[in-house]
Amino acid sequence: MKVLINDIEHDLAEPACLTDALAAVEATPPFAVAINREFVPRSQYAGRMLQADDRIEVIRPVTGG
Asked: How far apart are CA 55 and CA 7, in angstroms?
């Protein structure tokens, strides 16, 4: 199944959950995640199933002054 992760197309095996998508981009904490512009709590990553064409945003905090 094709999904967009940070605007880059990725092909994931079905069925796929959010943790599969995060593994595909080798995401390392700290980060927040939204699927189709909806924030997903960390406690729901493993159970959140993905659908074809989902748009996943992995957002990293920005520090500095």
From this structure: 7
